[in-house]
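User: quick one, fold this
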Amino acid sequence: MSIIKIKDQPFYIQSTAVLFGLVLFVYSLSQLADVLIPLAFAVFFAILLNPLSNRLQRLKIPKVLSIMISLLVALIVVGIVFYFLSTQIIQFGDALPMLKEKFGAVTADIKEWISSTFGLAVAKQDQMIKDALNNSQSVLGKTLGSVLGTLGIVFLLPVYIFLMLFYKTLILNFLYEVFAEENSKKVSEVLSETKIAIQSYIVGLLIETLIVALMNSTALVLLGVRYGILIGCIGALLNLLPYIGGIIAIALPVLMATVTKDGYSTQLGVILSYIVIQFIDNNVLVPRIVSSKVQINAMMSIVVVLLGNQLWGLPGMFLSIPFIAVLKIIFDRIDGLKPWGKLLGDTVPTRHMGDLWRNRKKRKAVLSKAEQ
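Assistant:
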């Protein structure tokens, strides 16, 4: 019985097979999200902590103890950050009743202005808001589920990270043996570049977040926005969501300034300050600190972040960029997938391949005529 090879089939059969494989793959990712999301985060953080663990082992510290010390250092850093944010949140909670009252007054003024300007009755506005809230219940439930899922990830992460660092050699041997000895050089290159890309991306992201938090907080404190440090830090965390979080982060200080201050000069100052900070972030910090050896263009970054949100919610948005960076490393090492690697990259060619191929054919035709 002969075996039918996909590559020998017509294009429409090949494309259908590829599409079916992609659909099956994405469906599997969606159904196994509860298992795969913690594992994906664990892989990235295990790669990040691996140098510290290796250094401790070179100091003759036992492997298990080295891994536990590395995890403890990471947990202490995370605990300090959460302690700082919790103290700010407590102060914000004390003033919440007053802010709620002022927000109600501002909302009433806005409703009156809309009623007098556009002739839309206040009762009609209330009904529209109520309908919008009812329609967004499913979105709220999805977001809450995403947050609860994220909390679950936090509790599972230390266990997964420990096991991945402990079984690192076993996992590496598996990858080498799966792709056979003749492909060992390419496997080594992919693993090495993947490690460098993820380490530089995560470390750079943490440094960028700290700098953006300092800039946000300084700007808001100088403008006199209440709870400027807390809002500035939240804005920096939202900025971790590429191209989307930075826009959302502006709404928080603008809303706080609207509730707590008269006039609109503070809101204008907030918007201008955040525009300057975003310009510095996108043109100075990201290229010099965050960007690794693997560059992903802006269009694909936005598409991948939105797809990650659709697939895995909030965790998917964080994982999308390093995941696509790893894919680009793999694509660049496989001849048949190199066009996909170029599509993901940020190198913009000056001419498309159609022109180059036509010119090449013309040169060949001219040369053949000259030889005749």
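User: anything notable?
Assistant: The chain is about 85% helix and 0% strand.
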